[in-house]
Every structure is written in structure tokens, then in C-alpha cells.
Amino acid sequence: MGKNGGGLQKELCNALLDKLEWDGHGKALDIGTGGGRVAVYLLTRYTLAHVVGIDYWDNPWAYSKAICDENAESEGVADRVNFQRASAVNLHFEDGE
Q1: Are 16 and 8 in contact (CB under 8 A)?
Q2: Element holding 27 (H helix, E strand)
Q3: pLDDT reported for residue 30
Q4: What distances in angstroms separate CA 76 from CA 33, 58, 69, one per listed residue?
Q5: Considering its fold, how many domains does the chain have in total?
Q6: Does the residue 7 lie in any domain?
Q7: Residue 61's domain is classified under what CATH number?
Q8: Domain range for residue 35?
Q9: What are the Cα distances from residue 29, in Å, to 15, 48, 55, 97?
Q10: Mean pLDDT, residues 17-32 taken together
Q11: Would you say the pTM of this structure is higher than 0.85?
């Protein structure tokens, strides 16, 4: 996953996802997505899932979103993820969505 997607990052993401109690069907919300690595690894593990990754990136936020999009493209999951600039304090999603 990009030049910064080394083994330790993948190991940490996999350790996190190993704790996830989910069958991988439906949608997931990645709050504080950063570079989108957890969202992307989730999608490579759960091939039927869709993810929205949100973060309140600093300006210019398009640069950070571009990194997320590049990471998703490199793993072949870009069609199942949507990265958005949003605040975790004021989520614009309905309960249960």
C-alpha cells in the first residue's frame, strides 16, 4: 500500500480487524481514516463490504483525500470506498446507516 504501507502498518491493521465482530456484509464507517489504510485493508478482507472513510484533514484536504484514493486504487478497492472530509463530532449519517 504505497511507499509508506510497510509490514508494521499492515500487521497493526490486521490485528485491529481480527478484533472486529462483523460478517463483512454491508457498510462500515472509518472515523479518523487518515490515509485510509484501515478502510482499504478492511475492503481487501471483506470483499462484499463498502466503506465510508471520514477525517477532518487539514488544508489542503484534497491532498489527503488523494492519498486515500491512491491507496484504494493500488489495492483494487476504489469502487467500494468513499473518502469524505467530515468531523467525528458532527456526523452526517443516520443511526443504523
Answers
A1: no
A2: strand 26-31
A3: 94
A4: 18, 26, 10
A5: 1
A6: no
A7: 3.40.50.150
A8: 27-85
A9: 18, 14, 11, 9
A10: 92
A11: no
Please say whether the beta carbons of 72 and 40 come within 8 A.
Answer: yes
How far apart are the C-alpha atoms of 87 and 57, rounded to whole Å?
A: 9
Let me know if residue 5 belongs to a domain: no
Q: Write down the residue that cell numbers 468531523 correspond to.
A: 87
Strand order of the β-sheet with 81-85 is 26-31, 49-55, 81-85
List pLDDT tens digits, range 81-93. 999 999 889 888 8
pLDDT exceeds cutoff 80 at 22: yes
Instruction: Give the dihedral of Cα atoms 31, 32, 35, 39; nearest 10 deg.
Output: -20
pLDDT digits (tens, 9 = 90+) for 29-61: 999 998 999 999 999 999 999 999 999 887 777
CA dihedral over 83, 84, 85, 86, signed as positive or negative: negative
